[in-house]
Amino acid sequence: MKKQLSLIAKLFLLSFLLSFVIFHGLFLPTAFLNKLPQMVTIFLSIVIQALPFVLIGVFGSALMQNFVTVEMVENKLAKTAKLNGILLAIGAGFFFPVCDCGVIPVARRMLLKKVPPYMAIAFLVTAPLVNPITVWATATAFGYNLPVTLIRVGMAIVIGIIVALMVSELFPTLEHLFTSKAIQEWETAAGDNENIIEHHHHKGSVLADIIDHANEEFLEVGKFLIIGSLIASIIQTVIPKQSLLVITQNPALSVMVMMALALCLSLCAEADAFVARSFTYHFPLGSVMAFMVFGQMLDIKNAALLLKSFKLKAILFIFGLCAILVLIFCTFMNRMPINNLMHGRL
Amino acid sequence: MKNFEKHFTTIVLSSYAIFLFYLLSTGAIAKFINPRLSFLSVIALLIIGVMIFRNLAKNSGQSKHPTTCQCGHHEAEKFQPSNLLLFLPIFLSVMVGPGTLSYQPDNNPGQNGGIATTTSINPNGVIVTRYANPNQFANNNNALNQNLSPGNNNQNQSQETEKAQDVAAQFIPAGYEEYTQLNIGDTIFDTPKAPKQKLTHAKIFLRGKVIHSPLLKADEIIVYRVVITCCAADGMPLGIVVKLPEKSDFQPDEWVGVEGTVQLLPFDEKLKSIDPIAAMVPPEKIYPYFTAAKAYQVQPPREEYLFP
Question: What is the pTM of this model?
């Protein structure tokens, strides 16, 4: 019965979306309809831009599924100290060029391979910010300004370490982080690792297995990317930026406004620094930094994907903690006379 | 229905492949993302191609992979109605069609705030787009809509029109050097590649769309273009205040060309609410002020957006 209701709800949503587009003139106010083509442009652009990263992410995840065994991970990480493990995960983010779109499938797969949750969370939170593409984009946007670039990367690493340490204490196992349904699904999917490998790895079929896993993961991840992108494009079109930008005087409030803006805009790691640069006249450096750091840790596009498998409590804790830390660091920055660090080109 | 479910992944992936191939082959991808990053879409296309081939092989039974097994490992491959959402981007691109990003400030009467399109809805609920002159249609209307609409059999004629308009769009007056808003931004922010002296000593031709603002004088307009760094979601308008030889009668979002010189003046704080202007102000609080000797309507360039 529950399943049927869920199906009906989904069909209703779909038919609403269809009628929304086909009969939009009958239902929706003209002010919104004037913005519909713009919304579609933004929606499509987010999808087109994120698609390669999502595909790379799902292939990364599929490679991990096929080549990394639970035993391998357990043997390697058994003697690794907690802090070293966290730094290792952050280091992996530096060499793994995944943006916020591709990081979730990889982090999910890490957890499935029994990588300690605190390491996977450290990777999830920092990888989009410390990867070489993001570092390069930040440096370019701020006129190769080393302090601004280092502050962004440094803040991400510090926050990643703190969050991971807290997760290691409060969410030590997979069961603490994920819904039982998600774990059950994955265990069925991953199965008893050895059996699956034996079952699937027929001679010459490793590549086929990798592609099959990528296919499955794409179906799972793709629809959440679309839901997130749709919400982000609606918010970006409907909420006028100016209404958020009026609050610039209060150091803490301006940080919060920029975090909210980053959450709503769902920008790619490669682009957000350039957009942030355009805010430097309105906002102090701390607030601009909040936009660049928090926006890559969480945005609406990814929230839908996270809700698919993470417990709400875990999401609220992890990203709530990220938000509080960003707020504290950036408000502190706003109170320091460091605005002259912001030089550079658009 | 069972066949549809069986081939669902292949159909989804094929639709994405066709969509991406279309955008890449026609250049329409520049309407959505920075063309410099289109290699990423090529990578996506290749990955999707591999996935399609694998699915076709699996579905045609040539695969050694045991899809009929009952191990439970293939649960995720089962069709779920919510997977239909994957068609939404393709569906929306065909049904609605993307618009052109533009900007009009909040305080302009009758205009949308922030980034907006020039598209509007007529009383019958049909989406229509306004152009300053009919010739702009062929250039402005995106290639996706043109090719997806039925009865598109005068392709040669439209190609010739496009060529003629390309020539017109590339027009630069003799003795002038074309600068974009992005070049001027580079110079103001004093990057090594563009010293300020070069800007203030040059005879400049600038192209862009018009913004009127009550914060400006009657003979002043803003000439702006939208800069796309990564994708349209990060579209950012960059504008220059232009003093015209006489009072302006240009329409908002009309494409204009201005010939003249640039001065770097102390920033006028009252303009800080206009995003395209605020984005051009460096920490030393100066801004570019363009004094035009001539100003006239021009054809929109082939690529409306600027890409850093």
Answer: 0.71
